[in-house]
């Protein structure tokens, strides 16, 4: 049975939550029915925005226990969590226990224990836990994912991902403090998410162990990961130096190479290296998947961030049709656990640290990632 609409309860209407609320004006078959926040004035602004976009006002829940009351509401299908990192798991677990599917901002968890809580609760309740990793829906990343699925790179051997972004300290002070106090990579999923799909992590292969180092001063973290089948990954985080924005998006295979940053680059076998506009033109040939088409749909609608539109549009499509989600709870756990494990390695002279198998062995039989 196809659902007419997905009824959403949004927890947290600060900066990120308001952007989500505004973006859902463009998402068909979904409605923000309720909002929860610590502060009443934020809820007032949320309803003002809904009215301004011609949408119905949402039911308001305010105060410290507001999020719980929202999770308990009977007329909600999906709880969408846009709060601080430390509250993500607690809220997601409670929402699933109340029979709700969950979409949670990145990272979904900050410790390995929290990752297991997400996995166990999702398995026990049968509810979805979708981590909103928008970088998986980057235009170039989706195109190169299709190239990989068509065999253009041959067998993948190595990938690199990063979050290199000079933050405005006055605007993101809490984030900078978190990075400096953490000592590892507390924000690993932007770089790792697209790689997880490319390498079919927990779908025929899985992360095995990592080693991590953090520079002093500067707080630049570099983490090296290896999969059970021998693939290598470089993951980097730098929000403290004046480097240009960069997520790397590097793919190395036996037949080809790709990298988005700093300049889009493609090469296959012994053919000419394609750089810049030439690489982007070649990539257009592979912009055929459903998420790619939704990326263009968002672009044509004038949505500020096409990656987010494609991500949310896919989420609602899959929920309405009862399909497996693009990002499952095992993705959320496998990508998020790097936060604590990189911290442990970096603080202990970069010793190797094992990465848990959140599928409990099922990764060996799970089919490759696909868009349903």
Automatic annotation (TrEMBL):
The organism's place on the tree of life at top rank: Bacteria
All residue ranges annotated as the Glycosyl hydrolase 109 C-terminal domain in the record: 169-216, 218-263
Domain Gfo/Idh/MocA-like oxidoreductase N-terminal: 6-131
Record keyword NAD present: yes
Membrane-spanning intervals of the chain: none
Keywords noted in UniProt: Glycosidase, Hydrolase, NAD
Cofactor(s) this protein requires: NAD(+)
Annotated InterPro entries: Gfo/Idh/MocA-like_OxRdtase_N, Gfo/Idh/MocA_oxidrdct_glycsds, Glyco_hydro_109_C, NAD(P)-bd_dom_sf
An annotated Gene Ontology molecular function: nucleotide binding
Protein family membership: Belongs to the Gfo/Idh/MocA family. Glycosyl hydrolase 109 subfamily.
Protein name in UniProt: Putative dehydrogenase
């Amino acid at each position: 049975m196809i659902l007419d609409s997905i009824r959403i309860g949004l927890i947290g209407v600060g900066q990120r939550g308001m952007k989500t609320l505004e973006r859902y004006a463009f998402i068909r078959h979904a409605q923000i029915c309720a909002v929860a926040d610590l502060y009443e004035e934020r809820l007032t602004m949320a309803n003002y925005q809904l009215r301004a976009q011609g949408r119905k006002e949402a039911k308001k829940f305010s105060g410290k226990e507001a999020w719980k009351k929202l999770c308990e509401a009977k007329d909600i299908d999906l709880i969408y969590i846009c709060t601080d990192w430390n509250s993500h798991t607690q809220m997601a677990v409670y929402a699933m226990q109340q029979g709700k599917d969950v979409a949670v901002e990145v990272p979904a968890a900050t410790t390995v224990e929290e990752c297991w809580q997400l996995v166990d609760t999702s398995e026990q309740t049968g509810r979805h836990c979708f981590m909103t990793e928008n970088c998986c829906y980057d235009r170039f990343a989706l195109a190169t994912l299709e190239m990989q699925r068509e065999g253009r790179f041959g067998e993948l051997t190595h990938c690199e991902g990063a979050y290199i972004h000079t933050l405005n300290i006055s605007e993101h002070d809490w984030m900078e403090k978190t990075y400096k106090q953490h000592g590892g990579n507390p924000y690993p999923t932007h770089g790792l998410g697209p790689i997880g799909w490319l390498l079919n992590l927990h779908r025929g292969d899985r992360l095995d162990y990592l080693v991590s180092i953090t520079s002093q001063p500067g707080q630049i973290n570099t983490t090296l990961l290896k999969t059970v089948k021998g693939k290598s990954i470089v993951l980097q985080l730098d929000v403290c130096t004046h480097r240009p924005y960069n997520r790397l998006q590097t793919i190395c295979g036996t037949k080809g190479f790709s990298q988005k940053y700093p300049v889009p680059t493609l090469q296959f076998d012994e053919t000419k290296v394609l750089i810049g506009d030439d690489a982007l033109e070649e990539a257009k040939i592979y912009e055929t998947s459903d998420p790619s088409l939704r990326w263009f749909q968002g672009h044509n609608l004038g949505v500020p961030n096409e990656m987010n539109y494609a991500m949310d549009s896919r989420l609602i499509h899959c929920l309405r049709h009862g399909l497996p989600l693009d990002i499952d709870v095992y993705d959320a756990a496998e990508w998020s656990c790097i936060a604590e494990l990189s911290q442990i390695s970096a603080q202990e002279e970069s010793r190797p640290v094992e990465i848990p198998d959140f599928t409990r062995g099922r990764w060996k039989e799970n089919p490759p990632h696909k868009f349903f």
